[in-house]
Fold each of these.
Amino acid sequence: MSGTPAIYNPTVMDHFLNPRNVGEVPGANAVGEAGEPGCGDTLKLTMKIESGRITDVRFRALGCPVAIASSSVATELIKGRSVDEARRFSDKEVVAALGGLTPAKIKCSVLAAEALDAALNNYAENYGGTSCSPSEQ
């Protein structure tokens, strides 16, 4: 893509043009949303948690290329983690996995961590704060 601004490195462009884990998880038992009112970016994460581990995670995002790329890479980083490990997830992981972001675009990486936190809180509210799946209760 000639003319692509320098703020979009090849990793960001790859995740923007070929986003991973797009959509919604069928039978999701954890859902979280986050938004950036200033720029209009929004993110919805749906997850399936079984035996205390995130077995599937997908996203729907509306936003700039970095917001979409951040959401895509976050799903790859989150999938397979335990609930406890996911609680320690940080937007810094997203920035590192994308090969760095400009200061103006860092805010886009925060959405994934916020949506994940909301999804984990949703799971805890629905299943009593346990780390087991509904079928195990």
Note: Confidence is low (pLDDT under 50) at residues 130-137.
Amino acid sequence: MRELKEELEALNGVLETLQEMASNIDVDLTMLQIPLLQYGKTCKDVEAVIVKFITHSYRSWTSFRDWTKLIYLGEDISGLRNMLVGYKSTFMIALRYTNM
């Protein structure tokens, strides 16, 4: 879970940088339309899975049993983390490309 959280924070930083760049300079980021839409869908799907599997958790306490049942697209939490790494890599490549 800690690695997933760290990956989400890193991905969020990349997305914030992309957002700042898009609003401050005239840059064409249409190449990111599909990856961004896919990432948004992934986030919504994962949220739905989490809501489904937090039956034993409460606001201030998360059940370990709930987290062990969490599966997205046949993958466990590390599979989800790897998917986020792929999105982050895609967005970082776009950032480097636009900074050239």
Note: The chain has a mean pLDDT of 77.
Amino acid sequence: MPLRINTLTIDATNPGSLAEFWVAALDWQVIHQDEWQALITPTLDRPEAPGAIAVLFQYNPDAKTTKNRWHFDLVPDDQDAEVQRLERLGAHRVDIGQGDVDWVVMADPEGNEICVLRSFSG
């Protein structure tokens, strides 16, 4: 019996606020939210669409203290413009020891790492 991933679950001290950041960053939609969790997905009508994975932000009072073991790699059309847009949304650049690389390492408002890659088209 094959498995499929239902959601990627991320602990958050403020699930609603973190979901708002990612909804704005990815142009996704919130499909469920209460005081303990917020679930986002690319579409409301087909959250189970092939290749789509929902992201669940669940409440955890513990602050993030170490580098994530999972993170999103984002592929924009324009890396510089996307980094600036993410900064306006509340992300910031971070140094996790990556050295001289052609991607930009950032953190979302709760400190979860994000890599903004160069476009594959150019």
Note: The helical segments are 15-26, 79-89.
Amino acid sequence: MAHPFTPVSYAMCHADDIANCAETAAMLQQQLHVVDQFCSNTGIEINLSKTEVIVFRNSGPLRAYESWHVRGVRLNITSVYKYVGLLFTPQLSWNLAHDKLAS
């Protein structure tokens, strides 16, 4: 078990999708590198046009170091991310997901 103050990272997998979660920008970039290496080693292609990043926080602009790359391609930062049918927002509000499910 990680120490309460040790940054941790997670990966959620469903079918052919992977959603990585990390507590720091550097950890996410490291995860992206690991996924890229795995894909390169196994012949799997990453669809970079569908690869996005969402930053969870209450408000404020992204910091200069908050950008992520795979194979030299800068990834798009999105304000709404859909994973397994659920909609996620930077503030982790369930309002958008609730409204979508209700309709």
Note: DSSP finds two helices and eight strands in the chain.
